[in-house]
Amino acid sequence: MVISRLAETPELNNALLVGSAVLLLLLVSWSVLVISSFLLHQGIRASGIQSLAALGEGVYKRGRLLASFVSIPVIVAGTALLGYALWSGTDLQPWFDQALLEVTPDILKALGRGAGLVVLMLIGFYTLQRGGRRLVVRVEQTLRERQLHEAQRIHVEKLLAILPSVVNLALANTVVNLALPAVDLPVAIDWLISTTLYILLLVTGGRALVFLLYFLSERLVASWEAKSQGTPLEEYYAVLRRLLPVGQKSLEAITYISVATLIVRKFQTLEPVAPYGPILIRVVSMFFAASVLVEFGRVMVTRLLSASTSVADDVQRRRQTFISLMQSIIKYAVYFCICMMVLSDLGVDPTPVLAGAGIVGLTVGLGAQTIVQDLINGIFLLFEDQILNGDYVRIGDTEGMVDEITPRVTRIRDRYGRLHIMRNGEIKNVINYSRGWTLAVVEMSVAYESDLRQALRVINEASAQLPNLLPGKAIETPKVMGIETIDESCLRVRIETKVAPGCHYEVKRVLHMLLVESFNANKLEIPYPKSVELSPPEPLAPPGEKEAA
User: For residues 502 and 435, what is the distance between their CA atoms, to the nearest angstrom?
Assistant: First the structure.
């Protein structure tokens, strides 16, 4: 193939040839850079990845600037070639003819076929995109017509926002994978285009799958809760509702780990890291399964040990104490087994770990005897039924309600709301006010000036009202035991009352109020501190003054 001379003189012919070549190179470079930046920008927009949006906008805006920078070397090279030809008097016509001879018809056919395939690829993509858009609209209408809860609606909106991007990237990936073998691009460019679309599709599809799993899990648990109301399984489905956030986060982690594993396998240099993806998925799945086992174990223990509600109060509290202990044991046992399974999956033999833990535990146990003493004493406190959760006890100088008993410490809440945390090894002598009846003792002061028999009668009448005011708490009518002490300023009368466990303070307060009201009503004096002021005697007058008077 030969180019006809464009002018008669060699100088003008050289100028026209160089100008045509420069113009053709500028056209090709501008077309490639602008179209590639546009396609990259559209791909990032279709992915819906917000972190890459700024990159896509920057590439699209700088595509023409980059083309301008590329044009400068082309123009400079063309000008230099033309100047050399004019300086040396060389005719460039044979050079261009020789260059055109290198362009065979097969190359031209390949270029034309490639350009045609690119055009057909774009046409096919936009045609399929319209069909995908209509499908997305139908799915959106179907979901919006359903009655959804607030959490479900939020996940649906996020899914619908990213679904068009997934469809666009899936279509683009399909069309490009079908067209690239026919275009016969260099291997590096072919790999770059296909890998970029593949990664964008995986990331966007992973996000859409996460939102879909969130929506399906919310809807599934909600439907199960509605069906289980009033059935024996209602409590178990309530556990599923509590575990739903953990399950959703686990599914999200599994999805993203799977996406990362598929992306890593696309790069040969990162292939050794790929096997860790399934291992991480198993680890996340096992810890979620452990959470499910722990929660269902808590429910089963509660139902087995507190099935009857007609038992005595102390039996019920004893069951509640052992329920907490069994739930803690189940939790520690399940997570310990899961940790051993995780070590096995990571390639670590758990047998030496268990043996080392036993040796270390023995060493620590010999060195930390106080901890061992606390644990042993805590076990005896529980199994000997000395104290239970909810008991009102006195241990040393600490008095109050037992909040919680663990194998190592006991937590007691006193009457002022302060929480006392005591080591079980320090508990030596326990006074338990919650085992059977206790005595509420009140000492009423009677003034010496009052009629003692009347005061005793008033105390008996006031005490007799107590069982009616506090039924179930004051077990018997209070007994007036008589004068307990004779003080310097008053007589103290002792009154004893049998009360239900833990009610002695309330009964004493009410009895005090009855006694004060009865003394005031009968005009009996309640002793209080008094002071006596003595005036000095008047001086005696002299004898002479008395006679004069």
Answer: 9
Q: Could you tell me the CATH number of the domain that includes residue 499?
A: 3.30.70.100
User: Coil, helix or strand for 423?
Assistant: strand
Beta carbons of 3 and 20 less than 8 angstroms apart: no
Q: What residues form DSSP beta bridges with 393?
A: 400, 432
Give the pLDDT confidence of 452-483 residue by residue, as tens digits: 888 888 888 888 888 888 887 888 888 888 88
The answer to whether residues 307 and 280 belong to one domain is: yes
> In this predicted model, what pLDDT tens digit does every residue of 98-150 receive, in sequence order?
666 666 566 556 555 555 655 656 665 566 556 656 666 676 677 666 666 77
- Distance CA(504)–CA(492), nearest Å, equals 20
pLDDT of residue 207: 86
- Please indicate, yes or no, if residue 121 is contained in any of the structural domains: no
Q: What single string gives the DSSP state of each residue in 35-77?
A: HHHHHHHHHHHHHT-HHHHHHHHHHHHHHHHHHHHHHHHHHHH
Q: What's the pTM value of the predicted model, to 2 decimals? A: 0.51
Task: Calculate the CA dihedral of residues 138, 140, 141, 143 and round it to 10 degrees.
Answer: 120
Residue 474 DSSP symbol: B
User: Is residue 196 in some structural domain?
Assistant: no
Token pair, residue 96, equals 């261009």
The count of structural domains within the chain is 3
Structure tokens at 302: 């509660």
Amino acid at residue number 391: D
Residues of the domain holding 515 = 438-522
SS3 439: strand
pLDDT higher than threshold 80 for residue 516: yes
Residue 517 in contact with residue 470, Cβ under 8 Å? no
Q: Tens of pLDDT along 16-36?
A: 777 777 787 777 777 766 666
Whole-number Å distance between alpha carbons of 1 and 17 = 15
260/542 Cα distance (integer angstroms): 123
Place of tokens 């992306």: 263
Measured between alpha carbons, how far is 175 from 197 in angstroms, rounded to an integer? 11
- Give the tens place of pLDDT for each residue, 367-394: 556 777 777 777 777 776 677 777 888 8
Query: Which burial class, exposed, middle or buried, applies to 546 when counting CB atoms under 10 A from its CB (0-12, 13-18, 19+)?
Result: exposed
